[in-house]
Write a structure and sequence with these properties.
Helix content of chain A: over 70%
CATH superfamily of chain A: ABC transporter involved in vitamin B12 uptake, BtuC
Distance between the termini of chain B: 43 Å
Largest sheet of chain A: none
Number of domains of chain B: 2
CATH class of the largest domain in chain B: Alpha Beta
CATH architecture of chain A: Orthogonal Bundle
Shape of chain B: globular
Number of helices of chain A: 15
Structural class of chain B: alpha/beta
Number of helices of chain B: 12
Number of domains of chain A: 1
Strand content of chain B: 25-35%
Strand content of chain A: under 5%
Oligomer: heterodimer
CATH topology of the largest domain in chain B: Rossmann fold
Mean pLDDT of chain B: 87
Structural class of chain A: mainly alpha
Shape of chain A: globular
Radius of gyration of chain A: 21 Å
CATH architecture of the largest domain in chain B: 3-Layer(aba) Sandwich
Largest interface: A-B, 37 and 41 residues
CATH class of chain A: Mainly Alpha
Low-confidence stretches of chain B: 271-288
Chain lengths: 350, 288
């Protein structure tokens, strides 16, 4: 921590800290380096040791270069999937926490993940097939389920309020979570043994995407969300003072809240459809980042996006190697870290 | 003096329940206006309508002659700042970060604060006597310090009009005096126009040059404080008998509540008799 203070990443103070520009540059450099290092180094770790030099040795044809094949075909898609899922879930967590003015909110609080899970369950159990090209059915079904949940929660938040009530949003999300969980149990009850195994495995989170296709399918939605996130940080700072204080400081509150809600939901939907509902990333990463850089969302949001990628890549390396040759679902690893962390946060806050 | 903010014939209701009815208020540059009235009289709602946070069902609010409904939030925030009763943070920010948030309406979407914004923040901190607190986490401050910092955050908006909703509601006597003297200095030395709502009649009497008395969403009376703040007005406003006199040492009117009027006591027999049964009883009898 002291290192970060010396680096000038801590909250803004006039004597020991440089201005926001240099703090932002430093934040991007430090967390960007961690994400890049994770992306490059993680594919080298596994049951078969790889040489980075051999991987990029262009003198060996690809079909003869086993290191390159393992790197690019077996491991890199998984690492990139982890980067995309970790990054979007962490950033969505930051946005939801600011939107709901609740540091304990997660990307899954508003029912997006439950909607995605229901979509995936239905696709797996009833064998619905609406694959698009090489993109399989389950990610599409889970994304559709996520969007359905978003639409229901949004409609309820609008119906009970002239503008956009975050209280109703929260209540609707929590209720929808419970309702969808009941539907998931019902669908599971109808499933046979194999289908149940597949659905349970999906619920644990799985980054073994097998190819680049699902990643490329998720990228446009994640990119759209991040484009919206880029406009939000200073407004999120002011929004955390409360809607009236934000109005008084010139924020168009309802349109900002709407943009935050839809962009974070879209990011969550894309992430869950790619890697399943990998829990706790959206709360652990933003809080670790806040410990290092303070609460300014202009630093927290990009830092969380970058650190979220590095964090989930590291968790997935653990999932692949801790009990090798058996693989632990990555969601189990993040839950094992996130559960105690969440309890620590609760105790700290109380 | 030129009219800065003009509310004309304002009516507003929540779900059909009228909270403001045909309210007209004109605020002139350099004014120090107090809104007085019992709970539910519409003070806070009127402040929100004046700040453009609520759109009136009828009537119009004009800021510098332009209808508020035609201005963006940013345009309004550059001319008019609001200080709420209490500010609670969901995340930990330092005092300087909170004050710098007041620069939001002056920055473009991707713009970061520069030296000018930092200088404005430091000036606002100095004006509110909070320079020494700038590195402190906001949540560790006392109630009075927090309110000063929020006023600094409002000042840094460079607005010439400050609207405050019961700024001393949760503060002890010393902090009330500090906030009062800060507002007086801002009004006198920096020509900041101040509009505040309060339940504290002595606080209003010590600061406000003009008062608007609200009851049941209507303006009961308005005008200069020394003319409006009378025993009769207080009785009509609160159903309370009070002595109003000029205090030589304080240099302003002072109000001493004596007791609830017998009419009001009959209407609310539960606890209304506490004051009337004490020292105020003779006066209450006299009024009856």
């Amino acid at each position: 921590m002291a290192v970060f203070w010396r680096l000038g990443l801590g909250p803004q103070t006039h004597e020991k800290m440089p201005n926001i520009r240099s703090r932002l540059a430093l934040t991007l450099a430090v967390f960007g380096a961690s994400a890049l290092a994770a992306c490059v180094l993680a594919p080298l770790v596994g049951s078969t040791p790889l040489s980075l030099r051999r991987v990029f040795d262009r003198s060996i044809p690809f079909q003869d270069n086993v290191d390159a094949q393992i790197f690019f075909v077996a491991r890199l898609p998984r690492v990139l999937a982890a980067a995309l899922v970790g990054s979007t879930l962490a950033a969505a967590g930051v946005v939801f926490q600011a939107l709901l003015r609740n540091p304990l909110a997660t990307p899954f609080t508003l029912g997006v993940s439950a909607g995605a899970a229901l979509g995936a369950m239905v696709a797996i159990t009833f064998g619905v097939d609406f694959a698009v090209g090489t993109l399989p059915t389950v990610p599409i079904a889970s994304f559709a389920g996520a969007l359905g949940a978003v639409a229901i929660v949004y409609a309820m938040a609008r119906a009970r309020h002239h503008g956009f009530s975050t209280n109703v949003l929260l209540l609707a999300g929590v209720t929808l979570n419970s309702f969808f969980s009941a539907l998931i149990l019902f669908v599971q009850y109808l499933a046979d043994f194999t289908q149940t195994f597949r659905t349970v495995r999906w619920l644990m989170g799985d980054l073994d995407v097998g190819s680049y296709t699902p990643i490329l399918a998720a990228v446009p939605f994640a990119a759209l969300s991040f484009a919206a996130f880029a406009t939000l940080p200073r407004s999120l700072n002011v929004l955390t003072l409360g809607p009236e204080a934000a109005l008084a400081r010139g924020i168009e509150v309802v349109s900002t809240q709407r943009l935050a809600f839809f962009s974070a939901s879209l990011a969550t939907g894309a992430a869950v459809s790619l890697g399943g509902p990998v829990g706790f990333i959206g709360i652990v990463v933003p809080h670790l980042v806040r410990l290092l850089v303070g609460s300014d969302h202009r630093l927290v949001l990009p830092a969380s996006a970058l650190f979220g990628a590095a964090f989930l890549i590291a968790c997935d390396v653990g999932a692949r190697t801790l009990m090798a040759p058996t693989e632990i679902p990555v969601g189990v690893i993040t839950a094992l870290i996130g559960g105690p962390f969440f309890l620590w946060l609760l105790i700290k806050r109380s | 003096m030129s009219v800065l903010l003009q509310a004309t014939d304002i009516s507003f209701g929540y779900d059909g329940l009228l909270v403001l009815q045909q309210v007209t208020v004109a605020i002139e540059r350099g004014d120090f206006l107090g809104l007085l009235g019992p709970n539910g009289s519409g003070k806070t709602t009127l402040l929100k309508v004046l700040a453009g946070m609520l759109r009136p069902d009828r009537g119009q609010v004009r800021l510098h002659g332009r209808p508020l409904s035609g201005l963006t939030r940013g345009e309004i925030a550059r001319q008019l700042a609001v200080v709420p009763q209490e500010t609670r943070l969901a995340f930990e920010y330092t005092v300087l970060e909170i004050v710098l948030m007041g620069r939001h309406p002056h920055l473009r979407t991707f713009e970061l604060e520069g030296p000018t914004d930092l200088a404005a923040a430091r000036e606002a901190l100095a004006a509110t006597g909070t320079s020494a607190l700038e590195d402190r986490p906001f949540n560790t401050l006392s109630g009075g310090e927090k309110q000063r910092v929020i006023i600094a955050s409002a000042l840094v908006q460079s607005a010439d009009l400050l609207l405050l909703d019961e700024p001393t509601a949760s503060l002890d006597l010393r902090y009330q005096l500090e906030i009062g003297s800060l507002l007086a200095v801002l009004n006198r030395d920096r020509n900041v126009t101040v509009v505040l709502s309060t339940h504290d009649l002595n606080f209003a009497a010590s600061l406000c040059r003009r008062l608007v008395l609200l009851r049941g969403g209507r303006v009961l009376e308005s005008g200069e404080t020394r003319v409006v703040l009378t025993r009769e007005a207080i009785r009509r406003l609160y159903d309370v008998n009070a002595d109003v006199s000029f205090h030589e040492r304080a240099g302003h009117l002072t109000v001493v509540p004596i007791g609830v009027t017998p009419d009001a006591e009959r209407a609310t027999p539960r606890g209304g008799g506490l004051l009337a049964s004490g020292a105020g009883a003779p006066d209450a009898r006299e009024d009856a």
